[in-house]
Each structure stands twice: as C-alpha cells, then as structure tokens.
Amino acid sequence: MTLEAGDKTPTFKLATDDGGEVSRASLKGTPFVLYFYPKDDTSGCTREAVDFSTAAAKFAKLGIPVIGVSKDSLASHEKFRKKHKLKLTLASDPDIKMAQDWGVWLQKSLYGRKYMGIERATFLVDAKGVIVEAWHKVKVPGHVEAVLAAAKKL
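Above: the chain's sequence. Below: its structure in token form.
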C-alpha cells in the first residue's frame, strides 16, 4: 500500500541519532517533512541530505521540521551527520516497520538483480497528521525546492 496525499499518517516511533526519538505523537499539531532514503553516505542520499540541510533554516522559519529515515543504525546516522555537517533529524528504522507501513519498502532492481530496499520518497504532512503531498521515486536535483514550495502553501 502506497501512501498518497489525503491519507492519514501511520503511527510511528523511531530513535534518532541525537539520542532522542521522533513519533507521530511528538509531532502532533506540527506540520513536518518526512523523507525516506536508501543508505547513509551514498552519492544520491548524501546530496539529498545536504540539500535538505542547506534549506533547513527556510523550513525552520515555516515551523516545519525535516526528518530523514533509513534502515541504517544510529551510529551510521551520527557518522553521516558529522561528516556532512547535516542540520536535520535522522531516524533509524532498522526493522523496516515504518518503511513498510508507509509503503516505501519495495522490490528494486540493479543490473538485473532484484532485491528489497527503501524507495526514495518524501511526505509533507500537515499539523493534523494528514499527508498533503507525497513524492515517490524521487529524483534528487530540484527536489528540496519542490518540497519547500509545497510547504510554503501550508
């Protein structure tokens, strides 16, 4: 099941690399951006994280936190954050429950080899916990600007 605009967000609760946790309950009453990415410190994922970090102040001015989610460990997230000076929350979904609940754990193919992985996807969620916009199979160049433009309309 793929989540789209108009869907209510599934319940979630994940540990974050800064020693905290993020959940639907902790974000209640706050719009937020949640983006799923395949793996820390790979080229596309690094570019996306750096782009979101560069725009972090603009999202903060709108009162919208940005949370990146992958199945990487908290230690991997912490190393990734420090290496690239990231200014966003990174949450770990090691058992891929959240990725499955949000419909972004799917079969992928690389050089003819099929495997399961996280789809690069972003969700803009309003203060009521309803998805306002969903981007699937995200292409990184220009993506953060599109998310920010949509966030400004909230």
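The helical segments are 43-54, 56-61, 74-84, 97-101, 143-152.
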